[in-house]
């Protein structure tokens, strides 16, 4: 049965999300539709424009983003309906019993992981990465940027940085398959013992949005990981920018060595 989203489910935007106004409208509308049954019919554009106090152009940009992210679907001649995003995959890097990267963990779960290498080069280290890796300004790092997909759907863009003096072969290795961590262990006997993880939120730049199949300005989850050896020396720094509609971040915590 089709239901209509009545105006009482909506209220005017009173606290703006940083950035263009359509992002605020989209976020408020996303929260409303996420709590509604699938197949609920949205009110006509003029009603929504009046509710949010915006033009049709602004409203359409907001709705376009929700359509692209799988929260809404347009049906010709019928209207716009609430739907549900595709099945979300857990973004998991396991650091409890071992350091295991995204590729290893997802493959073990039976998912099909695809990788496209976008950038692979030796570059001078930038200050934020130098601070994470304990490097000097004159040092070089191997920069590795990969687009990762799960079961054919773009999932995230991963940026990894390694000290070039420690892991020179990483600049030439084929990373379209397999795990970066497994490679470091196999080729360099790398001691990957501990990790620090920080999660925050960003927005998709135009080029990044094209890669991930979302609208520019869409919110992304940002997971930053620095892996250290047993003596606390940093070995790898990475940050991954994930589509939140098809992924979620899971943490495991081990207490007392268990």
Automatic annotation (TrEMBL):
Where is the chain membrane-spanning? Answer: none
Family annotation (InterPro entries):
Bact_HTH_transcr_reg (IPR050679), Chorismate_lyase_/UTRA_dom_sf (IPR028978), Tscrpt_reg_HTH_GntR (IPR000524), UTRA (IPR011663), WH-like_DNA-bd_sf (IPR036388), WH_DNA-bd_sf (IPR036390)
- State the protein's name: GntR family transcriptional regulator
What Pfam families has UniProt attached to this entry? GntR, UTRA
Recorded hits in SMART domains, A to Z, give: HTH_GNTR (SM00345), UTRA (SM00866)
Swiss-Prot/TrEMBL keywords: DNA-binding, Transcription, Transcription regulation
A Gene Ontology biological process in which this protein takes part is: negative regulation of DNA-templated transcription
Q: Which residues form the HTH gntR-type domain?
A: 19-85
Q: Does the keyword Cytoplasm apply?
A: no
């Amino acid at each position: 049965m089709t239901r209509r989203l009545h105006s009482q489910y909506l209220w005017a935007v009173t606290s703006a999300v940083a950035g263009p106004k359509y992002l605020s409208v989209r976020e408020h509308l996303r929260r409303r539709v996420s709590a509604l049954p699938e197949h609920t019919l949205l009110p006509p554009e003029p009603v929504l424009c009046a509710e949010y106090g915006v033009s049709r152009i602004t409203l359409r940009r907001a709705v376009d983003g929700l359509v692209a992210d799988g929260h809404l679907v347009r049906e010709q001649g019928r209207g716009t309906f609430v739907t549900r995003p595709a099945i979300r995959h857990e973004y998991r890097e396991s650091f409890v019993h071992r350091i295991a990267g995204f590729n290893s963990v997802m493959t073990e779960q039976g998912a099909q992981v695809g990788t496209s290498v976008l950038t692979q080069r030796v570059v001078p280290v930038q200050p934020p990465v130098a601070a994470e890796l304990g490097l000097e300004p004159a040092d070089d790092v191997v920069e590795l940027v990969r687009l990762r997909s799960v079961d054919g759907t773009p999932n995230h863009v991963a940026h990894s940085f390694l000290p070039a003096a420690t892991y020179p072969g990483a600049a030439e290795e084929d990373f379209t398959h397999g795990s970066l961590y497994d490679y470091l262990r196999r080729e360099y006997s790398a001691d990957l013992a501990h990790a620090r993880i920080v999660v925050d939120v960003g927005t998709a730049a135009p080029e990044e949005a094209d890669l991930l199949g979302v609208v520019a300005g869409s919110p992304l989850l940002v997971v930053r990981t620095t892996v250290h050896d047993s003596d606390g020396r940093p070995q790898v720094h990475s940050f991954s920018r994930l589509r939140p509609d098809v992924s979620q971040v899971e943490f495991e915590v081990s207490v007392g060595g268990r």
